[in-house]
Amino acid sequence: MQLIKKTLPFQPELIACDFDGVLTDNRVYIDENGIESVVCNRSDGMAIDFLRRTIPFFILSTEPNNVVVKRAEKLQIECLNGLSDKREALLRLCKSRDINLKRVVYIGNDINDLEAMNICGYSVAPSDAHLRVLTEVDHVLGKRGGDGVIREFCEVFLGM
Questions:
Q1: Taking the chain, what is the end-to-end CA distance rounded to the nearest angstrom?
Q2: Domain total for the chain?
Q3: 0.85 cut: is pTM over it?
Q4: Using an 8 Å Cβ cutoff, are 93 and 80 in contact?
Q5: Domain that holds residue 68
Q6: CA–CA gap between residue 83 and residue 60 (Å, rounded)
Q7: Could you read off the pLDDT of 102-125 as tens digits, one per residue?
């Protein structure tokens, strides 16, 4: 597949993304002890390493499981998890860091991302996002959640 290079309408001051369904394939594995685990794509890790050196990158997740925090620590990025309202969390985050919301890119996949996506300057979704998300975002990537969504975003928009 040939990637078509795109240009963002602004230089991002922040990129925020959901965890489940963006950095994962939205599935959870549960062992006999009730311990949850997920699968993440290492190509996203390389892209996030590229991003964190150029543009602040945040994970915003409703998932309270510590797996979100552990993945963020491994990638050396910040995350807010266990959120009940991603829009409000994003508003507070941007205000505390003096970031213009119209210069934020949000990458999400489900209806609980829409309110946060709608206040940002640009919204992106993986190809297997919820239908309502697919119809409302600015750009739909070719990759499915967990298949290198952040890597594709960086290649398409940031010339990685």
A1: 16
A2: 1
A3: yes
A4: yes
A5: 14-157
A6: 7
A7: 999 999 999 999 999 999 999 999
